[in-house]
Each structure stands twice: as structure tokens, then as C-alpha cells.
Amino acid sequence: MIYLVAGLVIFFGLHVYSAVRTRAPATRIEARMGAGPFKGLYSLVAIAGFVLIVWGYGAARPSAIIWQPPVWTAHLNILLQLIAMPVLVAAYLPAGHIKKTLKHPMLVAVKIWAIGHLLANGELNSILLFGSFLAYAVFDRIMVKKRGETGLPDNVKTALSSDMIALLIGLVIWGAMIFGLHALLFGRPVIAGMGAA
């Protein structure tokens, strides 16, 4: 469990710093270090934190059961991921209606993803992992609102094609997770009996 906690502290500590750091160009660490070295160091620390999270989550199994989710929450989680995946993809595509309407689709997707997994998993390591992602997404949404980052401008042109691509790619990712990718990556199938144990 210590590796999971350490990874969460490193990964989200770095992201909290990004959310609260000064935006004044002259006083930012990037200005003193240089953009290249700062981005390199930031990436290395973020990757180290993420690797610790992944390693620590697996190493913490079996974990203490904090609560026993009812069976229906697993089905609800599958449905929520069907919503979360296209929203996540939309965040990285040119402006579409999804991106413009949700303002910060990546944060919305993380919240949906985390809530779904919290509903379906009652182990301590899962609660720590998904609870941390949910807490950070809520925190970061508050911070971007304080900074006045209200998403895309009202007059931005939206393309329906971006929404269609997001829906298609999101559906493909969702289907791949159900039919074996989740088991391959995380050691647990979405639906019992599908994929590796």
C-alpha cells in the first residue's frame, strides 16, 4: 500500500502545484529553469508517480474490503464508462459540441470514470486510487473556474465531425476494455469470465 500512497502523493502533488502555481511569467519556475528543462523534469516526476500508482495498486492486492458493492453497481459502472470514454476523447480533438458544452471535458470524463469505479469497487486500494482522481478533478475544476478559464469562446466554430470521431473512438476503447483490454492492462476483466484473470 505504501507504493500506491507514495505514487498518489507524487503524481497529484505535482498536479496540484500546476493548478495553484503563479501564472505571472517572470516569477514562474519555468522562467528560471527554462521551459525545456522544466517540462523534462515535470514529465519525469509525473511518470515516476504514475508508475508507482500502477505498481502500488497491483501490489496492494488483496486489499481490505471497506464495503461490498451490490452487483448492479458493476453494470452502472460499465454504462458510465460508455459516457466517459467519448467525453475524454473529445477533450483532445478540435472543437465539437461535446467539448464546447462541457467546457472542460477531460475533467468531466475523469469524474465520471472515478465515480463509476468507486461505485463498483469497495477495496481500500480502489477507494484510495479512484477517490484521489475524483478529488483532484473536483479541485482542478474549482481552480480553473477561479482563473476564469471558462472553456471555448462562445463564437468558436464547432464541427459535428469531432463529436462523431469522439463517439467512435470512445466506443472502440470502451468495447476493447470490456472484451479483454482491461484484463490485459489491469489484471481484472470488466465482466467475469472475459479475458485474463
Automatic annotation (TrEMBL):
Membrane topology, record value: Multi-pass membrane protein
Coiled-coil segments: none
Stored Pfam families: NnrU
NnrU domain location: 4-188
Segments crossing the lipid bilayer: 42-60, 72-93, 113-139, 165-185
Compartments, record wording: Membrane
Keywords associated with the record: Membrane, Transmembrane, Transmembrane helix
Identification of the protein by name: NnrU family protein
Organism of origin: Henriciella marina
Classification of source organism: Bacteria, Pseudomonadati, Pseudomonadota, Alphaproteobacteria, Hyphomonadales
